[in-house]
Structure formats: C-alpha cells, structure tokens
Request: fold
Amino acid sequence: MIEHFEGAKVDIVVCDGAPDVIGVPDLDEYIQRQLLFSALNITTFLLRTGGTFVAKIFRGKEVDLSYRMLQVFFRDVTITKPKACRSNSVEGFVLC
Reply:
C-alpha cells in the first residue's frame, strides 16, 4: 500500500478487516486489535495531517486499550456502532 501511493498523502484510510472468529472472545478481540494496529501502522505513513481513519473494532473487555492507543495518534476518537450491525454483535467502528 505504502509503495502504491509513492509518498502521496491521502485524506482517509478505511479498514474493514476482521478475523475469522473462532468463538473465543478474548482471542478474537486480540486478533482484531492486531489487525487494527497493523492498519494504524500503515495509516501513519499514508494519512495527511488532519485526515480521517475509520476501522472495524471489537467492543470487548480490552476496547479501552485500543481507544487509548488511537488517542496517541488522533485528537478525536469515537467508537460507534452503525444501525446496520447486528444488535448482539461486538463489532463496531472507530472514527478518528
């Protein structure tokens, strides 16, 4: 991805990545968090100052850890759950 943009900066990065859940909530959340942090790593190279980062997040026991990490990079961080998501799902989106 980084090479594709040849140093150009983008206005928004969107990551809708999610692991194949295995039904172990702590492990599923951990793997999702690692995907989020990988997307954040790429984002630090691509996103222009003041740009927007949107990514899928699992709202489990450790969601505060992800929230605090994102606050290191972004002034405004909001976790939201679109109406299109199933009500019993831990899935949500972080908007930075």
Observations:
- The beta strands are 10-15, 47-58, 78-80, 91-95.
- The mean pLDDT is 88.
- The first strand starts at residue 10 and ends at 15.
